[in-house]
Amino acid sequence: MVNAKPKNPKVEALKQQGCLNPRPDGVKDPLFANSDFFDPCDLVQVKYEMVRRVRTDGQSVSATTEAFGFSRPAFYLAQSVLGSGGLAALLPKKPGPRGAHKLNAEVVDFLRRELNDNPSLGSPELAERVREHFGRKVHPRSVERALSRPGKKRQ
């Protein structure tokens, strides 16, 4: 029987929040080596300390990115988001599209006009009309969700 290694609750929490550093072994900075506070698994903490080291301590970007296991572009991105959005901006964003990309406002307006002209149209027919008119294949359920969202308020 193989003994299962007990799970670290902090690592599990970081993983669940999307803040687990995928390469903690790349963090070679001495501050993170033997510390109860600095944790190479904490992606937000590592990025913050990396930016702080350059900004406050005046270390070079090249040496700092090497010590923290990041690329220069990753450093500049972290520096930019930290400067514009504060510490919360370092939290990883949910992957995937940020909004309607196939059923944007123009397409939804078209769907509403089509439905207004012919109220008997179902979502499969509306999805087909979107394909014909815009060249976009959309799922009928996506059409239903788009039409159920509140539209523009008319005066």
How many individual helices?
A: 7
Query: Biggest sheet: strands, sense, closure?
Result: none
Structural class per helix/strand content? mainly alpha
How many beta strands in the DSSP annotation? 0
Indicate the low-confidence ranges by residue numbers. none
Count of the domains: 2
Proportion of strand residues: under 5%
Helices and strands, in order, run as HHHHHHH
- Average of pLDDT: 90
Helix content: 40-55%
Task: Output the radius of gyration.
Answer: 24 Å
Silhouette: elongated
N- to C-terminal separation?
72 Å
Describe the structure.
- The protein is an all-alpha fold and 155 residues long.
- It has two domains: 81 residues, no CATH class; 44 residues.
- It contains seven helices and no strands.
- Helix 2 packs antiparallel against helix 3.
- The longest helix has 14 residues.
Task: Furnish the topology, listing elements before pairings.
Layout: H1 9-17, H2 43-55, H3 61-68, H4 72-85, H5 105-117, H6 123-134, H7 140-148
